[in-house]
Design a protein that fits this description.
alpha+beta; five-stranded mixed beta sheet; 5 strands; about 35% helix
C-alpha cells in the first residue's frame, strides 16, 4: 500500500472514530491529521492517527476504538505502572494519549 493510499485509509478510519465518539466524549485529533484539519488540506501522507482524551473517558474511548476495528493495548506510565497514559493499536496506526484534567479544566 502506498503512503497516499494509507493516508486515505486512515482518513476513513478517523471518520469512523468521529462517528463513534462525537456524542459520547470529548477527544482531540492532533499530529498530522490535526494540522491538516486546521489548514484544510493534506500537507503530507499520514501513517497513523493521533488522539487525546481525558482519563474520565478512557473506557468510552477504548470501547469506541474497538467498535471501529482497532485492537488497543494500554501502555503504563514509566513512573507508575498502574497509570495508563496511552492506548496504542496493535498495528501502530492509532495512538490515544490519556490526559488528566486539572482544576481549571485545562490540559
Amino acid at each position: 500500500m502506498s503512503n497516499i493510499e494509507q493516508t486515505y485509509e486512515n482518513l476513513g478510519r478517523l471518520s469512523a472514530i468521529n462517528k463513534e465518539l462525537e456524542t459520547k466524549c470529548f477527544y482531540l485529533v492532533f499530529g498530522g491529521f490535526g494540522i491538516d484539519g486546521i489548514l484544510g488540506k493534506f500537507t503530507r501522507p499520514h501513517k497513523d492517527i493521533d488522539l487525546l482524551c481525558f482519563r474520565r473517558d478512557l473506557e468510552t474511548v477504548k470501547d469506541g476504538l474497538k467498535n471501529v476495528g482497532f485492537e488497543m493495548v494500554e501502555v503504563a506510565h514509566h513512573k507508575d505502572a498502574e497509570l495508563v497514559y496511552k492506548l496504542v493499536s496493535s498495528d501502530k496506526t492509532c495512538t490515544c494519549h490519556i490526559l488528566d484534567e486539572v482544576i481549571d479544566n485545562c490540559f
